[in-house]
Amino acid sequence: MKLGIIAGYSPATMSVPMELIKEAEGLGYDSVWTAEAWGSDAATPAAWILALTEKINVGTAIMQMPGRTPAMTAMTAMTLYAMSNGRFILGLGPSGPQVVEGWHGVAYGKPLTRTKEYISIIRTILERKEKLEHEGFHYQIPFNGEGSSGLGKPLKSILHGDPALQIYTASISPNGMKCAGEVSDGVFPVWMNPERYDIFEESLNEGFAAAGGGKSLENFEIAPFCTVILNDDLEAARMPVKNNLALYIGGMGARDKNFYNDYCKRLGYPDAAKEIQDLYLDGKKAEAAAAVPDALVDDVALVGPADRIRDRLQAWKAAGEKRQVGSLLAGTGSVEALRLLAEEVL
Q1: Is residue 162 within 8 Å of residue 179, measured between CB atoms?
Q2: Do 328 and 224 meet the contact criterion of CB atoms below 8 Å apart?
Q3: Which one of 6, 14, 91, 284 has the lowest number of neighbouring Cβ atoms within 10 Å?
Q4: 145-170: per-residue pLDDT in tens?
Q5: Phi, psi dihedrals of residue 17, rounded to the nearest 5°
Q6: Domain check: are 222 and 309 in the same one?
Q7: Could you report how far apart the first and last alpha carbons of the chain are, in Å?
Q8: Residue 256 pLDDT more than 90?
Q9: For residues 16 and 304, what is the distance between their CA atoms, to the nearest angstrom?
Q10: Stretch (H or E) spanning 31
Q11: Of all helices (H) and strands (E), which one includes residue 316?
């Protein structure tokens, strides 16, 4: 199992945690991941990090597909990959309707259809076997719909891309996991209990079968985010994780359409999922966080004293040996936590 670090997106004042990233690089971490929501973008900090590092891979987790055309994303990815000698990894996601329609001002559409079309277009650009043409639900290239000048023509990238560039997708739903297994090189399942690969297994296997070519976990990366909080006060360490889980399980979606809430149920906490959502949507955010079970926090995060984290890491390492976790992507601002993980895993 490899280790990565989550750089995330910037708060109100632009910042990139370069000291932490350079510490991770020196410790032998494999990757660092930027993100975007509705502020700083993911690609620009990735370029900054690539320019200031030498060995560590840099990826986006994720770039919002509806915010860019597939060709623009391919251009960005090819450029970063070429300028970093192959250290860039392209992570993509559909985002959600609130951001897509409320910030980017475009239709959310069909997220899995978009994912398949988007990656197909990018791979065609990278391969350069033929000029780019695509006729799909979300994308028509060349475009000849309403408002078209009729002058568009198929093109082939001037820059020669490398088909070896890895493309990951973000997903947790069964259909999303099947899609990831079919068209991508890896998946971000947000958080994950390393002992519950069974939640994803059937869907990923269906995707691998659809992809053909003997695709399996041997050539596919599962890369969950894992919050790491080193603190002798266990309850204090759990609380930030509970606040974050409450936000996603309770507030990221409508009452009858929240993929994170559904995922919480599949992880084995159906009653808690309902209670957290009811409280959160009633505006009782503190109570929603308090309703997050300690056991769920311990399943998906590494929190508490050093020895406790070392003990829980054994489950992650066992999953890594079976390729059920390819990379643990640590969310932490602590150099001590980074060093602890490195000592135990690398």
Answers
A1: no
A2: yes
A3: 14
A4: 999 999 999 999 999 999 999 999 99
A5: -75, 70
A6: yes
A7: 8
A8: no
A9: 26
A10: strand 31-34
A11: helix 306-321
Radius of gyration of the chain (CA): 20
Environment class of 307 (CB within 10 Å of its CB; exposed 0-12, middle 13-18, buried 19+): exposed
Residue 346 has, within 13 A of its CA and on its CB side, a CA count of 18
In terms of domains, do 151 and 95 share one? Answer: yes
Same domain, yes or no: 310 and 191: yes
**What does the alpha-carbon distance between residue 327 and residue 234 come to, in Å, rounded to a whole number?**
25
**Do the Cβ atoms of 93 and 167 come closer than 8 Å?**
no
Cβ atoms 57, 30 nearer than 8 A = yes
105: domain CATH number? 3.20.20.30
The answer on 33 and 161 residing in a single domain is yes
* Nearest C-alpha neighbor of 255 from the set 282, 231, 235, 236: 282
Cα angle value 54/28/306 (rounded, 5°): 140
Distance from C-alpha of 163 to C-alpha of 219, rounded to nearest angstrom: 15
Written as six digits, the tokens of 239 are 């609380």
Cα diameter, the chain:
66
Query: Token pair for residue 316?
Result: 């992650």
Bond into 142 cis (ω within 30)? yes
Locus of tokens 């985010």: 225
What is residue 257's predicted lDDT score, i.e. its pLDDT?
A: 83
What distance in Å separates the CA atoms of residue 7 and residue 35, rounded to the nearest whole number?
7
- φ, ψ of residue 6 to 5 degrees: the values are -95, 115
My answer on whether 251 and 210 are in the same domain is no
The overall average pLDDT reported for the chain is 97
Q: How many residues does the chain have?
A: 346
Q: Take residue 278 and report the two structure tokens written for it.
A: 């009811």
Pairwise CA distance, residues 92 & 171, whole Å: 10
pTM beyond 0.90, yes or no = yes
